[in-house]
Design a protein that fits this description.
heterodimer, A: 272 residues, alpha/beta, Elongation Factor Tu (Ef-tu), domain 3, Rossmann fold, seven-stranded antiparallel beta sheet, seven-stranded mixed beta sheet, 16 strands, globular, B: 308 residues, TIM Barrel, eight-stranded parallel barrel, four-stranded antiparallel beta sheet, 31% helix
Chain lengths: 272, 308
């Protein structure tokens, strides 16, 4: 974990409301798939807190990219950064995706901007020669483009696209084609790696449970610090006994990646 | 800065020597170790642990934090590993750092406070205790004790007797007369007062018409509360002779200096640690520069120096 000032090389809108920010760093960093950074434009007072963004891609030890959706004050401030702009960058943070061996299979489920957390995973799966399928869901065709659809297609894995409005690919939620695959027995020997809205991951976790497939999810939560001290980003996890210390895990340092079985999906995820 | 310690910055509070007056505030500095990769803990004056209770606590359901303008609300609910685990698992690791460790203590009753202190008394490497009588997030205990000079004085007196270390009492701003509270706690035997804790606040999601925090209300921290905190330090400094530690939205050297001039011997930095993890180091360097620019022999020479 290092705290450095990254220089924006590019910050382009790749679809309305979606941007790709590429930062040059003056120190080497080693980022594993699924890790994230806390970012804030340098010298900007408001908003105060940095924003947690998944590392989308690395290009050598000193260049990292972030794919993000402009959703609020923090991401709006990041959207304003032009070429050469300075961004306070704390990284790498959180745990990382477990990489299945090439005797296993992987099912990657990306929902909306959750795609940002799984592109590097696909890269590693490709390198490792793991039999991989991708289920890619977005609200509509433009959002799918904004969530990096073409970057995922470039890996050449079998990819099923779903959009909620049917403007591209299959109409409906990404979990529908996933369910079909699992019903056909396509989940045997596979690990599902999912990142997306809470409701999507909850459904993916249910399907994984039903069809007895290992399932790993990357969670999101509003974060104060990103490195474990504020204890603001917790998620409730299953414990044997009554609610006690350890019932709440920090998404930032105990995650962001959790075994789907450990998450209390029945607790309403206010704020997600 | 090339020199590790600037002698002009050294301060002594209740017999405890600090290399400098810059401390990490409770709840924003974890158990200290979380910052070891990010700053040189040996250069830090000290830090206050996350609040410790006699038994571990789960805390509140999420969402626990929400950013507001110039600050944030939190209702963490005092999730912590418990005093025993702190003594056994964290303190041994903290020994390698030359910084002062202050253990923040709380409970849901006077007896629980005492129980936590008795556990911590066994620990080696704790410089002092900071009594959290003011955390606004617990339904019992804290808020009641911190709002009542009588209850706060009673607890302070018992805690002082139970403690084998200097006792700092952290004041709540959520009171009508902070000076009256400070006087009662000082008379009850506290060695030092720290102030302020968070200001009770609320934020509402207008679409759902629900509070943004699961607990409903939370503690407001960050630069937004700083003028309130400076005013309260000034008022308490006029009322009691005890050394004071100023807390509340400090995010720069000038912010720290405001508290020192108003009456603080040392300061704690809280929320700023979240978005600028090296802020403590920057303020230490900034205070050295201020001493140089203003030809100060010691930083403590400007404590309680507000021009009339």
């Amino acid at each position: 974990m290092i705290d450095i000032v990254g220089i924006a090389e590019t910050n382009e809108e790749i679809a309305p409301g979606y941007r790709l920010l590429r930062l040059a760093l003056n120190q080497d960093v080693e980022v594993r798939p699924g890790q994230f950074a806390m970012l804030k434009p340098r010298g900007v007072f408001e908003p105060l807190l940095r924003r947690a963004l998944a590392v989308y891609r690395v290009d050598g030890p000193r260049r990292v990219s972030f794919l993000f959706q402009v959703l609020g004050r923090g991401t709006e401030a990041l959207a304003q950064i032009g070429e050469g702009g300075e961004i306070e960058t704390l990284l790498p943070l959180g745990n990382s995706w477990p990489i299945p061996s090439n005797e296993e299979r992987a099912i990657v489920v990306a929902g909306g901007i959750g795609s940002a957390s799984v592109l590097m995973l696909c890269e590693v799966l490709k390198q490792a020669g793991v039999d991989t399928r991708v289920f890619f869901g977005a609200a509509n065709a433009r959002a799918a483009a904004g969530c990096g659809l073409e970057d995922f297609r470039a890996y050449g894995f079998p990819l099923v696209l779903s959009t909620v409005d049917g403007s591209s690919g299959e109409r409906g939620f990404v979990t529908a084609p996933l369910e079909r695959l699992l019903k056909e027995g396509g989940g045997r020997g596979a690990t599902i790696c999912a990142c997306g809205p809470w409701g999507m991951m909850k459904r993916v976790a249910e399907l994984a449970e039903e069809f007895e497939v290992r399932c790993i999810v990357s969670l999101e939560a509003p974060m104060g610090c990103g490195f474990g001290v504020c204890v603001g980003c917790v998620v409730e996890v299953k414990t044997d006994g009554p609610l006690g210390y350890g019932s709440y895990k920090r998404v930032c340092t105990d995650g962001s990646i959790f075994n789907a079985k450990s998450v209390r999906w029945d607790i309403s995820a206010v704020g997600h | 800065m090339s020199t590790k310690y600037d002698p002009r910055l050294a301060v002594t509070i209740a017999g405890i020597y600090f290399n400098n007056p810059v401390l990490g505030a409770s709840g924003t500095f974890g158990y200290g170790l979380e910052f070891a990769e990010l700053i040189d803990l040996n250069r830090l004056g000290g830090f206050v642990t996350k609040g410790l209770s006699a038994k571990p606590l789960a805390g509140n359901p999420p969402p626990r934090i929400v950013e507001t303008h110039g600050g944030m609300l939190n209702a963490i609910g005092l999730q912590n590993i418990g005093a025993r685990a702190f003594v056994e698992e964290k303190l041994p690791l903290l020994k390698r750092y030359d910084t002062k460790v202050i253990a923040n203590v709380f409970g849901y009753s006077d007896d629980e406070y005492i129980e936590a202190i008795e556990i911590l008394n066994d620990g080696e490497g704790i410089a002092a205790y900071e009594l959290n009588i003011s955390c606004p997030n617990v339904k019992e205990g804290g808020i009641v004790i911190g709002n009542s000079p009588t209850a706060a004085a009673r607890l302070t007196s018992r805690a002082k007797q139970a403690s084998n270390r200097p006792l700092i009492v952290k004041l709540s701003p959520n009171v009508t007369d902070v000076a009256e509270l400070a006087r009662a706690i000082a008379d009850a035997g506290a060695d030092c007062l720290s102030l302020i804790n968070t200001v009770v606040g609320m934020s509402i999601d207008v679409n759902t018409r629900r509070p943004r925090l699961s607990y409903g209300t939370g503690g407001l921290s960050g630069p937004a509360i700083r003028p309130i905190a400076v005013r309260m330090v000034y008022e308490v400094a006029k009322t009691v002779d005890l050394p004071l530690i100023g807390i509340g939205g400090i995010a720069s050297t000038d912010d720290a200096l405001e508290f020192i001039i108003a009456g603080a011997t040392a300061i704690q930095i809280g929320t700023a640690n979240y978005y600028d993890p090296a802020i403590t180091m920057k303020v230490i360097d900034g205070l050295s520069a201020h001493c140089a620019n203003h030809h100060l022999q010691t930083i403590s020479s400007i404590t309680r120096s507000l021009a009339q």
